[in-house]
Amino acid sequence: MSTTKILLLGLGELGSAFLSHLITLPFTHLTVGTPNPSKHASLLASYPTVSHRAIDLAAPSDSLTKTFAAFDILIIATGFSSNIDSVTKLANEVLEAGKIRQAHRKSKLWFFPWQWGVDYDITGDAEGKMPLFGKQKAVRDLLRERAEESGVDWTIVSTGIFMSFLFEDFWGIVDRSREDDGRIVVRCLKNWEHKVTVTDVDDIGRVLAKIVARHVEANNRILYIAGDTVSYQELADVVGRVNGKEIGREEWSIPHLEAELKADPDNQIKKYRLVFARDGVWWDKEKTVNHQLGINMVDVETHARKLFGN
C-alpha cells in the first residue's frame, strides 16, 4: 500500500495535539512545517519518524505552491495571523498546488484549512466587527467555487471554542478573582438560555485522526464536533456543583455588550463576546462526528472538576 504524505503546518497547542494523534495512523508519513524548526527541536525529538522543514506562510506564493503540491494532505494549525488576507492567500496557493498535482496525474490534494472554530457561514464578519471572520467565510466560498476544478478536496472541522478558553480569566465568563473569599461569578452572553459549543484540544486531535483515516465521509463538506454544548445556565450549575461555593450570576445582555464595545471599540475580546452572544457558535452534540463515531469526549463538567481539583 502506498504511503500517504501529510503536511501539518503549525506546532502550537492545536498542532501539537494533531501531531500526537496523526503519528499513529498507518501507511502515512508526517512532515511538520514551521517557520523556525529549531524552536521545536525538543518536542520533535520524541517523534523520530516525523520530518520537519522550515515553511513560512509569508513566503512567495510560487514557492509555497510547489511545496504543497508534494503532499497528499495539508492540515493547517497555524492559528490566526495578524494579516487577515493570509487565509485567502493560503487557500489560493492550495488551489494552485492542486492544479500542479492534476498536471502530474496525482491524486487530489486534501485540504484542512484553519477553520477550527465557529460556523463562519452564520457569523460572517459580525456586521463588520470581525473582518477576519469575514475572510474565513470567503475561504469557504472560494473552496466551494474552485476546489473541484483545481483538483482539491477540502474538509472544514467546526469545533466551537477550545474548552480551556471558556474558563480563562480574560474571557470573563467564569470569574475566579474572588475565589479565595469563597465566591465565583459566572456570566452569560445574551441570556442564560444561550449556548456555546466547546471542545478539548486533545479531543480535536483524536477526532481529526479518525477523519483523516476516513472513518466518516468528509470530502468537500463541513463537519461538526463538540466536547460539549451547554447553556450558560447549565455552565453556572456545573461550576457550583463541582466547586461547592457560592456562585454569583451576572447577565451580559446584547445591549450591555454593545455598550461595552462602544466605550472601547478596539477591544478585541469585547468584539468576540458580542459575536458569541449571537448565532453560529453552538450546535447539538447529536449532529457531530464524535457522536456518530461513538467517541467519548471531555465535557464541561469533567474539565471543571479537573480545573477546580474536585
TrEMBL record:
What region holds the NmrA-like domain?
12-255
Can you name one GO molecular function term for this protein?
A: oxidoreductase activity
Q: Which UniProt keywords apply?
A: NADP, Oxidoreductase
Q: Which domain of life is it from?
A: Eukaryota
Which Pfam families does the UniProt record give?
NmrA
Q: Which SUPFAM superfamilies match?
A: NAD(P)-binding Rossmann-fold domains
Say yes or no: keyword tRNA processing present: no
Q: Which residues form a coiled coil?
A: none
The cross-references to PANTHER family, in alphabetical order and at most eight, read: NMRA-LIKE FAMILY PROTEIN, NMRA-LIKE FAMILY PROTEIN (AFU_ORTHOLOGUE AFUA_6G00280)
* Descriptive protein name: NmrA-like domain-containing protein
Q: What is the scientific name of the source organism?
A: Pyrenophora teres f. teres (strain 0-1) (Barley net blotch fungus)
